[in-house]
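1st attempt posting a full record on here, be nice pls
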Amino acid sequence: MTLRAADRARYDRATAQLDAPVAIVDLDAFDANADDLVRRAGGKPIRVASKSVRCRALLERVLAREGFAGIMSFTLAESLWLARSGFDDVLLAYPSADRAGYAELAADPKLAAAVTVMVDDPAQLDLIDAARAGGGEVVRVCLELDTALKLLGGRVRIGARRSPLHSPAQVAEVARAVARRPGFQLVGIMAYEGHVAGVGDAVAGRPLRSRAVRLMQAAARRELAERRAAVVRAVREVVPDLEFVNGGGTGSVQHTAAEDAVTEIAAGSGLYVPRLFDNYTSFRGRPAALFALPVVRRPGVGVVTVLGGGYPASGAPGADRLPVPYLPEGLRYDPQEGAGEVQTPLLGPVADDLLIGDKVWFRHAKAGELCERFDTLHLVEGDAVTATVPTYRGEGHTFL
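the predicted structure (as tokens):
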């Protein structure tokens, strides 16, 4: 029996009394992935990206482990909810226009001490001030650095379009704007190198593209390491007592951790290891988060139909954004239908071994987005479900 076949047998036994659709997290794999992240971080703390987890119980589990400290959130409303729930170090990774949220933040000493907001433009400070509604608490601020690699005088750009702050001078200018402004405290710098951390460099069947990605990423790492160090020096001239410099992502943990200027690493997808993280030379994780759909039809030889399945991930549309049939091995989508809204046909000889009511296990393309489809996660240890916990959705929250 292959390892994947053994996993299928375990998951089927563990969920035998549960009707599909159902989502699980294999805690042995989850914990092993957490250990691997800590190993690659080389002693620097890992701030957990909540968008890749979206489950309070699992955030608590990983933050209880040595090597993890703090949360990187994705909306202000989520940040405030987490802080009210007892998480005392929440970095909002994206600028917000949530005026009601800012009013709440500025009026509550506990929230203001726990939450740090993201800024890359003085106009965002104006919005926060206009939203205070009399709240006088000091708002903690982090500046985001644009990590994109720019070539040919800026005519070629490689990297996500996030912050407009690219040079040390630009970041230092906004740092001075924050430092001069009453009611704000600059405490950190963040730089997410998504073109390194979030792009696989060993795509099966694409050797030339994979080599090109590796060359690009090596050049991007060198350029960013030099520029990030210069940015930190420039900002420390304005604010000598910066609390943190955050960088990285699951795919670049060990590379970012090697930079002296970086004090902490961000990572989250590496806990669940969705399918987009199969194509890396730098690490091999264990799939920890899966969902199962039930076989409801057998339309013919070599084909079964499962209920649901149309769970595409965000990003540029493409086949890599679809969940992948994982267990049993050997199933594939019908190219004429793909993953359907209410049903999904699956092809392959192994389909003839499946019966009505059997489970087919899938892996989602991106980590935490799976939790937007399910109210609960069943936590599996060995071949048993040992706990059932709510996702954000199960707690009544769909923050974005």
